[in-house]
């Protein structure tokens, strides 16, 4: 499992989104109270001790003696496109909001294919084009959502604008990381990390829209 603690907080947040979130959602269907208690406990502990979810999972993997059998960063990236829990879906049914759901899911799915395709240059170049198009579609969808926020609600508009700017910043970092990778193909792990950041930023957009508009 090739990763250090330098990206511990990212791994912890991704674990919450793509591992714990879906598990708790399944539990919720059988025992709502237990699921809510566990969710609240993880949230509280992670706020007090940032990166707790990472340490927790890392400890379980070591205890099971499988921590060196796979790359957690790569696995989280692959799960990032396949796990779509209720917490990361916007409930409003208007076309603008449902289009944002659709664009976010599409981008995450494309990013999650990177570990399988990065070693085939021709295929990976096509995937990069798909990612660029998906990023543009997502930003267009975010802009349409922002446009629908009432003019009187300047606070929410600004919060969404700030979240969009943060996403753009990580998109540029991802683009720069790809350039580094094509200069040095040993940088694949850094590409995985950068893609995970982009998935997490996509999830943050969804959470922010739910918080400000739903």
UniProtKB/TrEMBL annotation:
Residues 11-66 form the Programmed cell death protein 10 dimerisation domain. GO terms for molecular function: protein kinase binding. It is found in: Cell membrane; Cytoplasm. Coiled coil: none annotated. Signal peptide: none annotated. InterPro entries: PDCD10, PDCD10_Homolog, PDCD10_N. It is a peripheral membrane protein. The keyword Membrane applies. This is Programmed cell death protein 10-like isoform X2.
């Amino acid at each position: 499992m090739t990763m250090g603690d330098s990206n511990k907080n990212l791994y912890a947040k991704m674990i919450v989104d793509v591992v714990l979130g879906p598990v708790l959602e399944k539990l919720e269907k059988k025992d709502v109270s237990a699921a809510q208690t566990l969710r609240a406990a993880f949230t509280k502990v992670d706020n007090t001790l940032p990166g707790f979810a990472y340490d927790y999972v890392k400890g379980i993997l070591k205890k099971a003696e499988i921590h060196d059998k796979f790359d957690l960063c790569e696995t989280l990236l692959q799960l990032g496109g396949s796990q779509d829990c209720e917490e990361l879906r916007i409930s409003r049914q208007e076309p603008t909001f449902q289009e944002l759901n659709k664009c976010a899911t599409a981008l995450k799915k494309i990013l999650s294919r990177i570990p399988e395709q990065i070693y085939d240059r021709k295929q990976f170049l096509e995937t990069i084009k798909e990612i660029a198009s998906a990023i543009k579609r997502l930003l267009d969808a975010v802009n349409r959502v922002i446009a629908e926020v009432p003019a009187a609600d300047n606070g929410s508009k600004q919060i969404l604008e700030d979240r969009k700017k943060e996403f753009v910043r990580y998109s540029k970092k991802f683009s720069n990381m790809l350039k580094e990778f094509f200069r040095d193909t040993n940088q694949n792990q850094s590409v995985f990390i950068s893609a995970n950041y982009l998935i997490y930023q996509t999830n943050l957009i969804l959470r922010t829209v739910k918080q400000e508009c739903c």
